[in-house]
Amino acid sequence: NCVLGDVGGWxxxxxxxxxxxxxxxxxxxxxxxxxxxxxxxxxxxxxxDLKNPPTGCVDKDGQQHAFGTNWMRDCISCSCTxxxxxxxxxxxxxSTVEIPEECELVVNKQACTAxxxxxxxxxxxCILT
Length: 129
Description:
Layout: H1 9-35, E1 40-44, E2 56-58, E3 64-66, E4 70-73, E5 76-81, E6 84-89, E7 103-108, E8 113-118
Antiparallel strand pairs: 1-6, 2-3, 4-5, 5-6, 7-8
C-alpha cells in the first residue's frame, strides 16, 4: 500500500507517479462525461399500410433512409432501424452542461467537437472538478 510504510525512495516515487496518473485519468474521464451529454430523440416507425410497408425512415428534411443506415448532418447523428429513427446531437447544449465560472464551452461545428477552456486563456483546457 502506498500510504503505509516506506520501503524505499523508489517505492514512494512509484506510488506518487501512480497517484498522479490516476488523477489525470479521473479528470479526463470527468471531462468526457460533461462533454458527452447530448440531446437525443427517437421517432417510432409508423406502418400506415400493411400491404405497402416502409423500407426505411424519413428524416426531418423529408429524405428517405434505408433500414440499417447511419448518417450525420449538422452534428446530429442518426440511425434508421425497423423500430424507427434515432438521432443524437453530438454537441453538448451549453445550457445543460455544468461548466465552472472561470471556464467556457468552445464549440467547433465544422468538426462537431466541444471542449471547456479557461476564459482567461482559451488555449488552456479547463480542469473540470
